[in-house]
Amino acid sequence: MLERKARQEICQVMRELKSRGLNRGAEGNISMRFGEGFLITPSGVLPEDMTPEQIVLLDMEGNWDGAWKPSSEWRMHRDIYQNRPQAGAVIHTHSTHATALSCLQKPIPPFHYMIALAGGEIIDCAPYATFGTEELSRNMLKGLGERKATLLANHGMICFEETLGRAMVLAETVEELARQFILASSVGEPQRLSAAEMARVLEKFSAYGQSLKKL
């Protein structure tokens, strides 16, 4: 029953990502840590057509059984789980504004204190590599550093959190920050918050958002 619930939640959040404009068509992918491996969305299936039975269970070697192939980006998800023990869920999107910045290969700087929700002073942009490759996954880990989100050059964004609900909040926040930064940049040069101020915000965020802890 726990596995069935996790599969249903993944399908539901995939549909929410599309309805909220964070993905289109069969773009993007979601996973949840499960047992000794993880559950991930199948390759090339539209969110509205996705069923719990199509969600693929992989081990940490990338092995799976069944007729449905996992997302081509399963390596990124696997490598997050292997390197970040606190990660319980991963979301990858091609959301419009985050992707636009990724195509400029620019990070999102500390123009707004909510950058700290991703766990650092900036949201970096990982170097480009072909989708689905080990090189992309290695670059992604560099882009993440000690943070929970990164842009992927000429591609999109990826983030993780302890739960899928919190990962959804973070994915939406990254997209909104990208939109705000683009809008502000169209008028002038956005002012950056200092490293000292971002350190204060990060400290405050360590005890922030009791409602998020329930997600």
Whole-number tally of structural domains:
1
CATH-assigned fold name:
L-fuculose-1-phosphate Aldolase
User: Structural class of the secondary elements?
Assistant: alpha+beta
The overall pLDDT, averaged over residues, is 95
Largest sheet: 7 strands, mixed
Reading off the top of the CATH hierarchy, the class is best stated as Alpha Beta
Low-confidence stretches: none
What's the β-strand tally?
Answer: 7
Strands ordered across the widest β-sheet = 3-2-1-4-7-6-5
What is the terminal-to-terminal distance?
19 Å
Q: Could you tell me the strand content as a percent range?
A: 5-15%
Count of individual helical segments: 6
Q: Percent of residues in helical segments? A: 25-40%
Features:
38% helix; 215 residues; 6 helices; single chain; L-fuculose-1-phosphate Aldolase; globular; alpha+beta; 7-stranded mixed β-sheet
